[in-house]
C-alpha cells in the first residue's frame, strides 16, 4: 500500500502512451500550465513504440472552404462504413472539431503536403465520397505527426516523458490515481490510457510490437466498461511475405485512391461486382472480398497493381521502400497483399471528454471507444479522433479534483498467459476475417483450458504482455460469440 503522504510529485496529468492521442493531450495540458508525466513502451532504439509512427494514411478532415464537403457528408461516409453501431451524435461532435484540431497540430510544427497555391493537398481513400484526406510525405503522415508531437513535447518544461510499462492501475477507493510500473508507482490527478490497439493478438498485423492491448486489460481489471472488441478491422492490403508473422508493412489505401486495383491470382478483378465503390469500398468489404478471392483460387494472396501510377516511388516512398525490401518494384511488379489485423474499433468506453466509467480514468485513441467508428473504421478517421479527443482530455484535466489522501491499492490484469504464437494462430483461425459460431465456441473452450492458458506469475515484461494478450483474447472471443453479427453465417445471410 502507498499513502497520500508518499505522492507529493503527482502530475496533474499522467499519460500512458506516447502516440498521437497521448502526446496531443500532454502538450495541450502543458500549454495550459499543468504538470504532465508521459510513460511509454520503448521500441528497439528507445523511441516510443506507437502505431502513429507507422500510419501511412492521412487525416480525414473537412475543408471548411470547400462548398462540396461538409461535416454532415463526413458523418454520412462514417456511418456508411461503420453501420448502425456508429454513434451519430458522437461522430458529428468529433468530426466537427477536426479542422480546429488539425490547425493546432500544424501550429505545433506538423508539415503536410500542399498544393502550389499553399493550400493543403487532399486525396481520397476507401469509403469517402470525395477527397478530404490530408497527408504528409505522401504516405508518411504518421511519421510526420509523431515527429512533430515528439519535438513539441520536448520543448514543454512542465512535461516529462520516460519509458515505463504499466503493470497495474492504482486506486484510492473507486478513483484511479496512478499506475504501477516495474520502477515504482507514478501518480496523476487525471490518468489517461493512450496505449493503442491489440494487433499482436493475431499472427500478422500492421501494428508495432507494443500493441498488445495493455490499456484494454488494465481498464477491464478496474471494472471500466469495455465494449465491441469483436470489431477488429483487417486492412485488406498488408504486404504478403511467405512465412512471415508479426508486424508486416501496410500498403496504403491511398495507392488505390490513385488508381491501383486488386486482382486475384488468375488476373481477375477482386472487387468486380462486389461493391459500387469498387477498390475503394469500405475496408471490411474489401478484406472479405480479398479473402474470398484467395479461397476461390487457392492462392496465398492477391495482388495490387500500381504500375499505372507514373510517379509511384515519389508519391508513395514508404510503400515503395517496403515493396523493394521484398525484392519487387511497384512500378513494374504486382504487389502481393493479404488482409492483416489493423485497428481495434471497440475499446474502453468513454464519453465525449474521454472519461471512462472508472472515476479518474480517461482513454483516447485506438484504446478508446467513443462510438465514432462503429463496426468498421472509415479510412483516416483514427488520427483525427485521437487529435480531437487528446485535446478534450487536456481540457478535462484542468478541472480535475485534487488527489485524495489515504492508501491506494494496485489492480492488475490476470497473469494467466498462453504461448504467444499458439494464441495468435488460434485468434487468426477462429476470430479473424472469417468467423463461425462453432469456431468461436472452440476458441472459447481453448482459452478456458488451463493447459493452454497457464496461470503463473509474470517474471518478465514479455510475460506481462502475454498475460494481457490472453486477457484481451478472452474478452474479444466472449464478445464475438455474444454478438454473432461478425460471423460468416451472419454476414452471408445479409448478402
From TrEMBL:
Pfam families: FAD_binding_2. One of its GO terms (biological process) is 'de novo' NAD+ biosynthetic process from L-aspartate. One of its GO terms (cellular component) is cytoplasm. Its EC number is 1.4.3.16. GO terms for molecular function: L-aspartate oxidase activity; steroid dehydrogenase activity, acting on the CH-CH group of donors. Belongs to the FAD-dependent oxidoreductase 2 family. NadB subfamily. This is L-aspartate oxidase. The lineage of its organism: Bacteria, Bacillati, Actinomycetota, Actinomycetes, Mycobacteriales.
